[in-house]
Amino acid sequence: MFNFGIWTSEFNNWLLGLGIADWLVVLIECVIIAVLVLGTYTVLALFYILYERKLCAWFQCRLGPMRVGKWGVMQVFADMFKILVKELICLKNTDRFLFKLAPYLVIISSVTMLACLPWGRGLQIIDYNIGIFFILAVSSVGVLGILLAGWASNNKYTLIGAMRSGAQMISYEISLGLAIITIVVFAGTMNITELVWAQEKTWFIFRGHIPAIIAFLIYVVAATAETNRGPFDLPEAEHELTAGYHTEYSGIHFGFFYLAEYLNLFIVSGIASLMFLGGWMPLHIPGWGGFNAVMDYIPSVVWFLGKAFFISYVIIWFKWTFPRVRIDQMLAFEWKYLMPLSLANLLLMAVFVALGWHF
Amino acid sequence: MNLLLEISNGVLAITAVVTGAVLVFAALLIARLISPKSFSVKKSEPYECGIPTRGQSMIQFKAGYYIFAILFLIFDVETVFLYPWAVKMNALGPSGLLCIGIFMFILIVGLAYAWRKGALKWT
Fold first, then answer.
1. Which residues make Cβ contacts (< 8 Å) with residue A331, sequence separation at least 6?
2. Residue A98 pLDDT more than 80?
3. Closest listed residue to residue B75, CA positions, set A148, A174, A281, A217
4. A134-157 per-residue burial string, b: 16 or more CB within 10 A, e: under 16
5. Enclosing domain of residue B112
6. A-contacting residues of B 13-52, CB under 8 Å?
């Protein structure tokens, strides 16, 4: 596997060798990282918008956007430019400070989570020893942004949308956290680098067999709800609430919520691939030396993105397959079925690890 | 450190936060510069299906959301307590497993109580 850390450390040594002050080196590197993260963020969000539109069209036997550019590739750029030139409206009686603060919280939380993901070997920006816990903590800030957006808009629909969104996201966050703890129990670490390296022989979903597979299913369901998608898109139920918490946002203000929504889809898929499908680690089967060597030739970035796109595909598939649930059904499903199941699964995993019933 | 750049994680986290803020700020600045501006009274009305809005919008609303928020608080704190145990699970051994089992049992009893009292019912 090619280690991207060679490039970065080489670059670092070159910068240090120029004889400039240490703080300046750090500053230059931080600016480069920031530009790269911004570029990745925008490109990924645009890609995801096209991905979802094309997939939903194909699920419904349509073609999707086809006019702008080859196969409609330029459609997302046209849409984003259109959103950029739209007027920014701030209604009367809105809480202006909170109204303008909300997009900042939503975007900052998704950018910070993006910077924690393991993109490839040696390609990970923030690497705390409590990495996965840090990601979960930052994801909670996004809920705050959504609640603020709904509350500050001074509209009854946005308020209801935000409250539903808040109730849904905090409820499913518990199952999400418990599914992740199940894997933390198995791996014995929260550091993202160590989590990936622990899956060198085989991925956690195969190593932990029964409890890991249950945890994976719980995670995918909870992640669908956490990103307000699929059968759980109550906050944006068009026929009841216009557009949910971002009804009153116009122009690029709305664009931020739109971008963050798609990025969150990528991030939950990225975490799923990190925790269950080995992050950037190739598919290795113990004992199959030749097969493993061939798999190692595929770059680590391709592995990570491929797994993340696959899980996003499944989540988008859910959205266009299942009808929307009611709010009481949704909350009952979490509190009466999913959460007790994930608690039981956690204990099962603890027993499996204690007795050594895993690969 | 994974990028091998000798920058501390704190600085990188601050960089990420600043990046997000700069993205929002820059995009808003560009939109301010190139987007049209006009004002009318009707446009600044809230959009509630075309019907004129009645009364305040920042009002009291369904208490059911608060009950779920309180339940969430309990179980989220539980999750936070579970993380340290999860990391040191092997070192703590069977006694740790027993203790966490008792801890989770108490919480499950709490959930069962809330369930029985009808807190999980959406009316």
1. A167, A168, A171, B68, B120, B122
2. yes
3. A174
4. bbbebbebbbebbbbbbbbbbbbb
5. 9-116
6. 13, 15-24, 27-28, 30-32, 34-38, 43-49
Chain B (73-92) residues lying within 8 Å, Cβ to Cβ, of chain A = 75-76, 79, 82-83, 86-90
| Under-50 pLDDT residues of chain B | 1
Considering only the beta carbons, identify the residue of B12, B94, B122 that sits closest to A125. B12
Q: Which domain covers residue A327, as residue numbers?
A: 82-355
Residue B121 belongs to a domain: no
* pLDDT score for A300: 86
A268/A276 Cα distance (integer angstroms): 12
The reported pLDDT for the residue numbered B1 is 45
ipTM summary value: 0.86
Question: At A88, is the secondary structure helix, strand, or coil?
Answer: coil
Helix or strand holding residue A290 (H, E) = helix A289-297
Four-point Cα dihedral B49, A146, A220, A75, nearest 10? 70
Q: Provide DSSP, A169-207.
A: HHHHHHHHHHHHHHHHHHH----HHHHHHTTSSS-HHHH
What is the rounded distance in angstroms from the CA atom of residue A163 to the CA atom of residue A244? 10
Name the 3-class secondary structure at A283. coil
Is A217 within 8 Å of A163 (Cβ atoms)? no
A52 assigned to some structural domain: no
Amino acid found at B115: W
Give the mean pLDDT of A122-141.
86
Q: What tens digit of pLDDT does each residue of A146-157 get?
A: 888 888 887 778
- Give the bridge partners for A123, in sequence order: A120
Q: Which amino acid is at A63?
A: L
CATH number at residue B98: 1.20.58.1610
Helix, coil or strand: residue A313:
helix
Tell me the two tokens of residue A89: 């409206």
Residues A322 and A231 sit within 8 Å (Cβ to Cβ): yes
Which tokens is A156 given? Answer: 């009854």
Query: Is A271 part of a structural domain of the chain?
Result: yes
Query: Cβ(A236)–Cβ(A243) under 8 Å?
Result: yes
Question: Long-range contacts for B63-67 (Cβ within 8 Å, ≥24 apart)?
Answer: B64/B122, B64/B123, B65/A163, B65/A166, B65/A167, B67/B119
Would residue B3 count as lying in a domain? no
Per-residue pLDDT tens digits for A62-73: 888 888 878 888
Number of domains in chain B: 1
Chain B residues in contact with A122 by the CB 8 A cut-off are 2-4
